[in-house]
Every structure is written in structure tokens, then in C-alpha cells.
Amino acid sequence: MKKILLSGIQPSGKLHIGNYFGALKQFVDLQESHECYIFIANYHALTTVTEARTLRTNTHEVAIDYLAAGLDPEKTTLYLQSDVPEVTELAWIFECITTVPYLERAHAFKDAEAKSKEINAGLMNYPMLMAADILVQDADVVPVGADQKQHIEYARDTAEKFNRLYGDTFTVPKAHVLEKVAIIPGTDGRKMSKSYGNVIPLFATPDEVKGGVMAIPTDSKGITEPKNPDTCNVFALHRLFSTDELPELEMRYREGKIGYHESKEILVRNMDSYLAPLRERREKIAKDAKAVAGILKAGGDKARARAAAKMKEVREAVGLV
Ligand code: AQP
């Protein structure tokens, strides 16, 4: 029996190459070896997106991105989180066995607090909704970037706590984080993140890719000065897109045989050849909105049926009957 893999991405904006290497590419790579459930986390996106039209458009775009990146609906159940409303019921039940100080320890919560953001209750309860997404499908494996690792710990803790209180009900899931791509840096060297404005969109046009790469800040070393590839934001992206040339580029960096401008030009060229086939596939898929909606509907029906069966067990376990 294949292990159950589950993960999702929020439709809170255009997917970027951090989302791709940190998460989406792994979903694609693991879809042969696992029974896969990949959703679009539109309930989660409500914590930040407050315009219905934007949420609807982003959701449709992410569905196209999933397919263009190589998720195959024959192998992977693709669905909208909101087509499985059972997760909100389960999140409520989890919130009732979870303490507020525990939720306040989440990095995402502390980050928002440090930035003095107005924190909505949805943001605070985010880890419980995520735990519900994962546990309601009895997922074994959850591929994510490093920033989400703590949330998987929350899901594990919640499964264990529920099982202790009400009897063995949930599988305790494991995070799957690939160290090499755990934190993809953005154009400013911080984690690539929509909210930091340092992203290169996965489906950027060639001009956007060029603009994004050329704007990456570097130090002011001249062409012949030795450079440290480990602290260069351009080189960090070479590690993803220039794998064949990496040893040569590293040598040229260390020996002062390449300037940042040339390094960026090489990166733009390599990014374009990597991203062009994905872009072409996306254009084709985007032409048939009905087919995309049909794939999500079929996936939603399947995911919901599984969730409903699990919720029957949960309701009985907690005494809601
Ligand atoms: N820079 C990154 N490196 C590696 N993995 C990343 N992920 C996101 N950014 C990077 C992974 O992408 C998946 C989906 O993430 P999400 O939908 O939760 O979005 P996010 O993490 O909130 O992405 P952003 O861009 O950082 O959004 P904002 O700025 O709105 O918070 C996750 O598996 C995540 O680890």
C-alpha cells in the first residue's frame, strides 16, 4: 500500500520559485510513489485575502499552475480546501483541545506580532486548520518548505493529544523537508516570500525574470576580485537553475574570473530554459477553464467523501451524536 501524501499551497498571490522548489516540485516528484492529495488552501488564504474576486482569480490561477508544474489528476487528487468543509468542523474540535499559549508560540503568529500586525483569529488558529487538513485524510507524509515544519509539529501534537483523549483515531504524520531546497532565498537574500516582495514568479515572462535577476543586490566587488558563492544571492539561484555549470561557476567566483553582471546573464539564460516548457504547458492548460474546474470538482468529491467518513468516527469519538 502506498503512503498517503498531502499538502497544499495558499492562493494568496502568484506562485513563486520558492513555492515551486520548496513544495510543488516535490509533490510532482513524489506522485508516483505515494497516494497524493494536493489542495488549494483557500480557507487559509482568507486570513490575508479579503477581496472575493482576488481570491477566486488566484484560486483558478493556482489550479492551472499545479497542472502546468506537472501534477497529474490521474495520479494526484487535486481539490479546493473549501470543497471539504469538514476541515473547518475538525479544526473547531482541535481548537477545543488546544491552549492559547501553545498557538501563540507558532513562528507565523510571533512574526505577525513582532510586525505589530492586526492579528485575526484565523491567523492564530491557522495551525489547527492545517492539522485538520492533514489529519482528516490520514496523511502519512506532508512535503513542505522549512517555514512550515513547525506547523507539521502542531499537527503531530494535535493527533497525539486527540488520540490520548478520545482513543486511537488519527495517523501521526511526518514532515518531508528536502534540506537543499528548504529555504529558497528571494532577490534580497531573505526567504523568498510574497509578503517580502522579493519573489520571482514561477510563471514570470522572460522580461520579468530578467528584471528580477538584474535587480538582485550584490556587493561591489570587481570582475577580478575573488567572490564568495556561499553569500551571493545570485549564486543561490544558480544552485537551482545552473546545476550542470555549478562547479565551473563556483571556481570562477572563488578565483575572481567572473563579474556579477555576467553571472546574472548566465542565470537568466538558465532560468529561461528551465521555465520555458512549464510556461508553454501553462498556456495550453489555461485555455480550457472548464476542464480545470472539472478536475477540481472530481478531486473535491473524492477528498470530501474520505473526510466525511473520518468525521463520522471523530463525532462518535468526542460524543457529538
Ligand atoms: N522561500 C521558500 N523556500 C522554500 N519553500 C517555500 N515555501 C514558500 N516559500 C518558500 C513553501 O511553499 C509552500 C506553500 O506555502 P504557503 O502557501 O503557505 O505560502 P507561504 O509559505 O506563506 O509562502 P509565502 O510566499 O512565504 O507567503 P506569505 O508571504 O504570504 O507568507 C509551503 O510548503 C512553504 O513551505
Descriptive account of the structure:
This protein is mainly alpha-helical and 321 residues long. The protein has two domains: 4-183 and 288-318, Rossmann fold; 203-282, Tyrosyl-Transfer RNA Synthetase, CATH 1.10.240. It is 55% helix and 8% strand. The chain contains 13 helices and five strands. It has helices at 17-30, 42-45, 52-69, 86-95, 100-104, 107-114, 121-136, 149-166, 206-214, 233-241, 246-254, 260-286, 289-318; strands at residues 3-9, 34-40, 76-80, 141-143, 174-176. The strands form two sheets. It has a three-stranded parallel beta sheet with strand order 1-2-3. Helix 8 (149-166) links the parallel strand 4 and strand 5. Helix 7 (121-136) packs across helix 8 (149-166) and helix 9 (206-214) packs antiparallel against helix 12. The radius of gyration is 21 Å and the shape is globular. The two termini are 33 Å apart. The mean pLDDT is 95. Bound molecules: adenosine-5'-tetraphosphate. Residues 9-10, 12, 18-19, 22-23, 144-145, 147-148, 183-184, 191-195 line the site of adenosine-5'-tetraphosphate.
Q: Strand share of the residues?
A: 5-15%
Shape: globular
**Secondary structure: helix percent:** 55-70%
- Give the CATH architecture of the largest domain: 3-Layer(aba) Sandwich
Order of helices and strands: EHEHHEHHHHEHEHHHHH
What is the rounded distance between the termini?
Answer: 33 Å
Assigned CATH superfamily of the largest domain: HUPs
Category from helices, strands and their pairing: mainly alpha
What integer is the average pLDDT? 95
Number of helices: 13
Any ligands, ions or cofactors bound here, and which?
Answer: adenosine-5'-tetraphosphate
Largest sheet: 3 strands, parallel
Question: What is the number of strand segments?
Answer: 5
CATH hierarchy class name of the largest domain = Alpha Beta
Which radius of gyration do the C-alpha atoms yield? 21 Å
How are the strands ordered across the major sheet? 1-2-3
Here the CATH topology of the largest domain equals Rossmann fold
Low-confidence stretches: none
- Give the tally of structural domains: 2
